[in-house]
Structures are given as C-alpha cells and as structure tokens.
Amino acid sequence: MFILRPIATTLLGVAIALAGLVAFYFLPVSSLPQIEFPTITVRASLPGASPEIMASSIATPLEKQMSAIAGITEMTSISALGSTQVVMQLDLDKSIDGAARSAQAAINAAQGTLPHNLPNLPTYKKVNPIDGPIMVIALSSTLTRPGEIYDFASSVLSQKLSQVEGIGEVIIGGGSLPAVRIQLNPKLLNHYNISLNDVRQVINQQTSYLPKGQLGNAEYSSEITSDYRWFSAKHYLP
Fold first, then answer.
1. Measuring CA to CA, which residue among 39, 41, 43, 135 is closest to residue 96?
2. Does residue 91 surpass a pLDDT of 80?
3. What is the structure's pLDDT at 121?
4. Are residues 64 and 126 in the same domain?
5. Are residues 155 and 117 in the same domain?
6. Are 211 and 47 in contact (CB under 8 A)?
7. What CATH number does the domain containing 61 carry?
8. Averaged over 121-138, what is the pLDDT?
9. pTM flag (> 0.70)
10. Mean pLDDT score of the chain, rounded to an integer?
11. Residues 108 and 46 in one domain
C-alpha cells in the first residue's frame, strides 16, 4: 500500500510528525525523559580547620584517588571552614552502585594521606535522580539507653545499609548524642560573683578542638591538638 500510494504515505508521515511536535509541546514536565546525571558526593570534616587546610590536606588527596574511578565526567570540590566535599558526576549508563563501591575503596586508599587527627573517615553519598525514599526503619530497645541505640545506628547500621545495592542514602533521625551535664551551685556562683555566661564561655574556650596549624613561619609547622579531660573552675574562672 505504501509503495502504491507514495503521496498518501508522505502526507501520513508529515501528519504523524506534526502530531508528535504538538503533543511534545503540551507534554507535562513530569513526563519528560530523565536527563540528570547521577552523582556521588564525598564529605569530610575537621572542626576549626581553615578552607585552605581542608582543600590542600583533605580535598586534594581525595580527588587524586577518586580520579581513578571509571565513568566520571566531572569532578569538583568545595572547601569551607571545617568541612569539604568532593562532587563527582557520572555517565548516564554508569552503575551508581559500582561507582559507590569504588568511592569507598578510594577513601580507604586515601586514608594514609589524610591528617591523622581527622575525627572520622570521609563519608560518601550516592544520588540517583530517579530514586526516592522508599523505606523507614524504626529502632527501639528496653535494654539499652537511647544514646547507645543512636550510636549503633550511626556507626554500624548506617554503614552496612549504605553498602547494599540500590540504597542511595541512609539518614539517621531521632536519638541523642552523648552529653555532659554540669551542675552549678548558685550560692558559690553568687559568692564569687560569677555568672552563667562566664561559665559557658570558659567551657567553650577550654573544650576547643584545634586542628593542624603553623607556628613561627611557613618553614616550620607543627600539629596542634587539644584534649581536655578535666575542668577546674578554680583555675579558669575569675
């Protein structure tokens, strides 16, 4: 039929093409094809470190190891006070789960070149634009304290779940972090003329974490860390 009716065939093809263009114009945004690239973000933190230290001591070694991952089309790093992140954009046909495993291996390989006073190893987050949250897990126990449950979820469970194929991100919510409660004697505070703000300022000053810095000049540098395991009100308060 198409061979015997070439004119009708041509007109039919043009009509189909025009109908497709009109339909595409009225197509909702949600029905458009997915063209966002999957990404993997590696984050690290070192409280108190300047952006320059974060970039040179942490971001650069991570970038060197991450550059060996296959399928990366673009890699950028952003460093700020006390934190840095390396963002890697992958090919559309690249398996994000395989790239995540390679990112974890790269983090392990870079561990020896990172500052030894880094509180925690860098963590990675894999983001696939077509994925979304699909599962919520609640933890409860009558045998442990809430802080122990939170510690287990953040240090053990989240690491195991993030290695499962298909899981993009594990978010820990609720729970509580370890804390120190300080009880003050109002009579003694009044006797020594000390306010609560004075106590708060001294505690903040004496519990600061100081990362690697320079002493003297650029040719001589030394790591500076602080680890205060005791607190004397008599020594620090006026």
1. 39
2. yes
3. 84
4. yes
5. no
6. yes
7. 3.30.70.1430
8. 73
9. no
10. 76
11. yes
Q: Say if residue 175 is exposed, middle or buried (CB neighbours under 10 Å; 0-12, 13-18, 19+).
A: middle
Say yes or no to pLDDT of 95 above 50: yes
- Three-state SS at 196: helix
Tell me, rounded to whole angstroms, the distance of Cα 92 from its chain centroid. 22
The residues near 223 (Cβ < 8 Å, ≥ 6 apart) are 115, 117, 212, 213
d(CA 231, CA 238): 14
Residues 6 or more apart in contact with residue 220 via CB below 8 angstroms: 214
Is the distance from CB of 141 to CB of 155 less than 8 angstroms?
no
pLDDT at 7: 80
When pLDDT is averaged across residues 42-63 and rounded to a whole number, the result is 88
Shared domain for 43 and 116, answered yes or no, is yes
Instruction: Give yes or no: residues 43 and 126 share one domain.
Output: yes
Report the pLDDT value the prediction gives residue 60, as an integer from 0 to 100.
Answer: 92
Q: CB under 8 Å to 151, separation ≥6 — which residues?
A: 178
Specify the pLDDT at position 220.
Answer: 41
Are 168 and 111 in a shared domain?
Answer: no
Q: Examine the fold and report which residue of 162, 179, 196 is the final residue of a domain before the chain moves on.
A: 179
| Residues 21, 51 within the same domain | no
Q: Do 152 and 173 fall into the same domain?
A: yes
Q: What is the mean pLDDT of residues 65-75?
A: 88
Residue with tokens 């974060």: 54
What is the C-alpha to C-alpha distance for residues 82 and 211, in angstroms, rounded to an integer?
Answer: 9
Number of domains in the chain: 4
CB 124 within 8 A of CB 104: yes
What range defines the domain where residue 153 resides? 132-179
